[in-house]
Automatic annotation (TrEMBL):
GO terms for cellular component: membrane. It comes from Agromyces bracchium. Residues 606-622 have a biased composition (Low complexity). Residues 400-466 form the Signal transduction histidine kinase subgroup 3 dimerisation and phosphoacceptor domain. This is histidine kinase.
Length: 637
């Protein structure tokens, strides 16, 4: 906790403790100084003493959670003005003091009325509030000086010494001012209560939510206050039950005030829910609906800035009405940190008393708009990255095909021609009887054939011609035939696929079989290729040692990149000792619907969605599949 904050808390605690001590001193000393036969009921005295304690406790809470220090200070002043009538016997010999206390002993009622007026904003709101407060203060000042100038010892319940400030004996004038002051106070309290009640009845849901308890407490207090004033004016003895109800009603005023502040604070906390709902940039209709639910204001409307048309419009594109502000509503403008307009929020005017709430709403809206814009930019960037990766893969495949064609049509053809010439030369040497030369030429022909074979294998590894000629149905069986581990192949694509898909699938299977041969210690492998819906599904399974993990090698990270570049996914199931199954899914992008001519029984009809592929044992268990990612055996994959 910061030192400045600790200091403020310490000062506030000291102030509250001081005024509580003063109040208790007046209450206890007055009770003890009163003759036993004149003492009020102990229960009533206890309730009377509890009223300032409740105000002091609520002052501490209001200081801690309230947006404005004025209400808490008014509660502290109330405690000082809560002077019990029984305290006068304690100061009856202090002629300079008792007239002053007699002049201000009803100040607590003025403070309580102002406290109600400043609820919940912490300040006087309109002209009516200012008139009421001014009238109460003027009446209090007039009463104070009248008491100093005219009050005698008979005006207080004690055997007090004469009033040293007294200017004249005018008991009638004093009684008129005294009763008139009480009458004005009751009238002002009734006006405040009626205004608050009417505002609550006619108010919107947010207005009622903010002032939900105060009218009840105020009306209870005003009713008992009016009855007490009548008893005082007529000289009839007070009613103990009525006085007790009045005390309880008075004590409920600060409690209701603090409850209202806590309610407003909880409304601000609900902005966090609003930010959670709209953190990904919710659409405009959902945003307005969520905002209305958060503020509990069905009249909320949100108008968004249309940069193209240069005006504010609602979610449906309708422009804002010039009369939106009015009829109990206010407009909250929301702009970006750079000052660019974002939106206007029309809300109930009572919510302007809770500017922290509206500031939170503005921040949530800005965050929602920024998140939506950022999300769109990220999605656009990711789409560009995917397209770029796909273009790179396509360019690589095209380069492979070009190199394969160059080797086939260039160097390979030249080597074949050289071989034919050597064969002719060898035959001629043998016909002329030069067997030594013929033998050397045969050796050269053998070396040339071996080089030609290696060249063909090199060209095949760069880009197999069978893949271009016959697709996966011809290329995968030929690929499996070159694997040192026996491989069972089942290829069921529906006709030819897109070149990029075929080449990606081919090299994925090639790398997977290479891993099987190098690391799995398997004795058999299975490869399945089939179309399911609009996806090409490849499964490569072996009966090796299993235990493959992406964290233990990078054998097929290149394949993962290839598959991801075409919008596919890679899954792995590799329990230790139970073999490894790699499952690859990618968009099929079928180009033709008919099967290749002459492909025979190896080309079957595409598997329907949900239909298990042949040799179901080879298909991976979906529960054991992870995506994306492909790894090899424990040694390297």
């Amino acid at each position: 906790m910061a030192p400045g904050r600790r200091g403020r808390i310490a000062r506030r605690t000291a102030v509250i403790a001081t005024v509580v001590a003063i109040s208790l001193f007046m209450e206890v000393s007055g009770y003890l100084a009163t003759p036993v036969d004149l003492r009020p009921e102990l229960s009533w005295t206890t309730v009377h003493a509890m009223v300032p304690l409740v105000f002091a406790a609520c002052a501490g809470v209001a200081w801690a959670i309230g947006p404005n220090p004025v209400p808490s200070r008014l509660m502290i002043v109330f405690v000082l003005f809560w002077i019990p009538q029984a305290f006068y016997p304690v100061i009856e010999t202090l002629g300079w003091l008792w007239p002053i206390l007699r002049g201000v002993d009803l100040g607590w009622a003025v403070v309580a009325g102002i406290l109600v007026l400043v609820y919940p904003r912490g300040g006087l709101g309109d002209r009516f509030d200012r008139v009421i407060a001014t009238t109460a203060l003027v009446a209090t000042v007039v009463n104070f000086f009248t008491v100093l100038a005219l009050a005698g010892p008979d005006s207080v319940p004690c055997d007090c010494v004469p009033n040293p400030y007294r200017l004249a004996e005018a008991p009638t004038v004093f009684a008129i001012v005294d009763i008139g002051y009480r009458f004005v106070g009751v009238a002002l309290a009734i006006a405040i209560a009626i205004r608050l009640l009417l505002r609550w009845v006619r108010g919107s849901v947010p207005a009622r939510a903010v002032a939900f308890l105060m009218p009840v407490a105020l009306l209870s207090w005003v009713s008992t206050l009016a009855t007490q004033m009548i008893h005082y004016a007529t000289g009839t003895p007070p009613n103990l039950a009525l006085d007790t109800v009045s005390l309880i009603a008075m004590a409920s005023v600060p409690v209701c005030f603090v409850a209202g502040i806590a309610h407003a604070r909880n409304m601000r906390a609900r902005v966090a829910d609003l930010m959670r709902i709209t953190r990904e940039g919710a659409d405009r209709g959902l945003w307005a609906e969520s905002l209305a639910r958060t503020l509990r204001d069905d009249s909320v409307r949100v108008f968004w800035w249309d940069e193209e048309r240069g005006r504010y419009v609602d979610a449906a594109g309708r422009p804002i009405d010039s009369a939106e502000e009015g009829r109990g509503h206010s407009i909250l403008p929301v702009a970006s940190p750079s000052g660019l307009p974002i939106a206007l929020i029309r809300h109930d005017r009572v919510l302007t008393d809770n500017m922290r709430l509206l500031d939170g709403v503005s921040s949530a809206l800005r965050l929602s708009v920024d998140n939506g814009r950022l999300r769109s930019e990220i999605e656009r960037t990711l789409d560009q990255v995917r397209q770029s990766r796909q273009r790179i893969v396509e360019a690589g495949d095209e380069a492979r095909r070009r190199i394969e064609r160059d080797l086939h049509d260039g160097a390979q053809q030249h080597l074949v021609a050289v071989g034919m010439q050597l064969r002719i030369a060898a035959n001629a040497a043998r016909a002329s009887g030069d067997d030594a030369v013929a033998g050397e030429l045969e050796q050269s022909i053998g070396t040339l054939n071996q080089g030609l074979k290696e060249l063909r294998e090199l060209a095949h590894g760069i880009h197999p011609s069978l893949l271009s000629q016959g697709g996966l149905a011809l290329a995968l069986p030929e690929l499996a035939g070159r694997c040192p581990v026996p491989v069972d192949i089942a290829v069921q694509p529906e006709g030819r696929l897109a070149e990029l898909v075929e080449s990606t699938a081919y090299f994925a299977v090639a790398e997977s079989l290479a891993n099987v041969a190098k690391h799995s210690k398997a004795t058999r492998a299975w490869v399945r290729a089939y179309v399911e819906g609009d996806e090409l599904v490849l499964t490569i399974r072996d009966n090796g040692v299993g235990g493959a993990s992406l964290d233990r090698g990078t054998g097929m990270l290149g394949i993962v990149d290839r598959i991801d570049a075409v919008g596919g996914s890679v899954g792995l199931a590799s329990p230790p000792g139970a073999g490894t199954t790699v499952t690859i899914r990618m968009p099929a992008h079928l180009e033709v619907s008919e099967a290749l001519p002459g492909s025979g029984a190896g080309l079957l009809v595409a598997a329907e969605p949900g239909v298990e592929p042949p040799d179901a044992a080879a298909a991976p268990d979906p529960s054991n599949t992870v995506a994306p990612g492909v790894v090899g055996s424990p040694a390297d994959r």
